[in-house]
């Protein structure tokens, strides 16, 4: 494969600037950055600050593969919270374009099975608005795989009027939560994949995705809780690349087969030695290049 390799800067746990420098040292081509709070909150970045950050990243020989705009909670299931979340998501999309990337990744909450479910309809309205807005920017609001099977997610995406809402494909989430096959998932979602995460893991027992990713009537999602569950919870484990149940030879071949040319971005949500783990992940990917 000759896809560029990215690193989720936040996985390095060094802060943005030091994380960018470390990503370059580790040999990444690009980076993904959380842009929901703190110094990367769009509200905290003036036009001048955006240009300075973009120029700094370019000076390191890096580019931004995507921003992460995951607002947590119940995703876009709660109609009373959606106006503010949609507005914030639009501002993150604006920031992405200003920084030179077309992709913002997110979790939207678990898509209900029934299309006449009021929660489904609420999520659909939110994603329709965001998809149209993203498309107007020639950008993508990319749903991360995991809470649903690939077939169900495709059905939801197909029902929208635009591909402005697309997919950030994470094979480990599929393996760990739904037990879906990532290889078939790539084929199923081939028209929507605009960014990928490289992560591995195992499923320990069947789980209700609503308990993991948050749903109305269930506790809201937080990345801290997901990382804790991936370390010591009863349902799944995130593991180093090659140690879990993602068949990377077949998975990477599937990405080649659909003509995917985008980023393979390393995300590491667990472990006490993120720099070492990410360096090993880069070496693992490079074996397939």
Automatic annotation (TrEMBL):
Classification via InterPro entries? IolE/XylAMocC-like, Xyl_isomerase-like_sf, Xyl_isomerase-like_TIM-brl
Segments forming domain Xylose isomerase-like TIM barrel: 20-287
User: PANTHER family from the xrefs?
Assistant: HYDROXYPYRUVATE ISOMERASE (PTHR12110), INOSOSE DEHYDRATASE (PTHR12110:SF41)
Q: What is this protein called?
A: TIM barrel protein
Q: Which organism is it from?
A: Paenibacillus planticolens
